[in-house]
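BUG-256 | component: ligand-complex export | severity: low

The export step for phosphoenolpyruvate jobs runs without errors, but we want the raw record kept on the ticket for reference. Input record follows.
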Amino acid sequence: MTTRTPLMAGNWKMNLDWKQALALVEELGEQLKSVDTTKVETVVLPPFVDLRTVQVAVDAGKLPIAYGAQDISEHESGAYTGEVSGAMLKALGATYVAVGHSERRQYHGEDEKVTNAKVKAAFASGLVPILCVGEPLEERQAGKHVEYTLAQLEGGIEGLTAEQAKTIVIAYEPVWAIGTGEVATPDDAQEVCAAIRDALRALHGDEVADAVRVLYGGSVKSSNVAELMERADVDGALVGGASLKAEEFAKIAGFQ
Ligand code: PEP
C-alpha cells in the first residue's frame, strides 16, 4: 500500500463531445460523494474541446475533480497549426497533462526528444506532467521490459531539476495491456513501478524517489484496482476505457 496520496487519472482519449463530457463529469461528481476524496486525488483528461465545459462544471459544482489534457505542444506559442500550448491549458484551470502516451508514440511518432520537450513545456506552464512509459509485447517476451521502460523514463525526464522531478507523475503502461482487457499482474506492475522508483533514486536521491507518484495503467477496472493498489510502489492508476463510466471510475477512485 502506498504511503503517497493516490492519484486516479481517467484518460478519455478521443471520446465524448462537450454535452457528453458535461454529463459524465457531473455524474462523476455525484458518484464521488461516496468516496473519501481527501484520501485520493481524482483527475480526468478530456479531449481539448471539452476542457472548458469540464472547467465550468467543476467550478460550478465545486466538484472534487482535477482535470488536464492528453497532450501539450512542446512550443510556447505561434505558428504551430493544430497545437495547444501549456499556457492555454493553464488558463483553463488544468493541472495535469499526459505526455508520451503510447498512442502518441505509436501514431504520432513521438520519441524521447519530443516527450522530454513536452515534459519541460508542461513544467514551464505550471502543469504537472504525467509521463507515460511502458514496453510493447515483444520487449516483455524478450525479458527486456524493465530496461526498455527505464530508457523511456530517463529520456523523458532528462535535464529536470530535482524540484521538478519531485512533482512529476510517472505512469507505467505496458502497451500490451492498454485497451486489451489484459491487465498486468500486481507482481508485474510492482516490479516495474519499483524499478522506476529505484531509477529516480539513483538520479535524484531519496527525497524525489519517495515523493513521486508512479501509476499503473492498462485495463484497470474496479474489479482489479484493489489488488494493484496493495503493492508498495503502485500509487494510483491511469485508466482509459473504465473512466468513461462515472460509477465505475468512482469505484476505482474509492479502492480503499
Ligand atoms: C490508457 O489509455 O492509458 C489506458 C490505460 O487504457 P485502458 O484502461 O482502456 O487500458
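Assignee comment: Attached the raw record above. The first helix runs from residue 18 to 31.
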